[in-house]
Amino acid sequence: xxxxxxxxxxxxxxxxxxxxxxxxxxxxxxxxxxxxxxxxxxxxxxxxxxxxxxxxxxxxxxxxxxxxxxxxxxxxxxxxxxxxxxxxxxxxxxxxxxxxxxxxxxxxxxxxxxxxxxxxxxxxxxxxxxxxxxxxxxxxxxxxxxxxxxxxxxxxxxxxxxxxxxxxxxxxxxxxxxxxxxxxxxxxxxx
Length: 191
What we know:
Blueprint: H1 9-35, E1 42-53, E2 58-72, E3 77-92, E4 95-113, E5 117-136, E6 139-158, E7 164-174, E8 180-190
Antiparallel strand pairs: 1-2, 1-8, 2-3, 3-4, 4-5, 5-6, 6-7, 7-8
């Protein structure tokens, strides 16, 4: 007779077989996903909206335009460089302020997905070129300031047709207390 603490291998054979099959399938899917990361450069033209932030609060919201390039350097990693331009207008009585901001945003991005669709998250150190025109008490003042910023972004890229891409980004760029926050959508091309 079998020992009372002995394991009956025949009764566990079915569950062991199912576990092995699931482990094998998971390994295959993981390897397929790792091999399917986009390996060619991608370029995008983008439009969107940004809220300009400053030390005293929001400086307005405006439409943006720009572009980006995603250049893979490892299976899940890419250099992602973006440039976005936007303009905001503030009016207080007869006084007004117009701000034109250019964000230069180089980043290292982690990508996860496949050739057909992937999400990304990244960040880095960039720059902002801020040009302002202030009309105050009938006098006009023009100023340009440049500064470093820290930024992060996350988004999604889909490949609906052969080499055509659609990209959606959420961007947060910190130069002042209140960050610039933007959302963009774009169309791109994979080389």
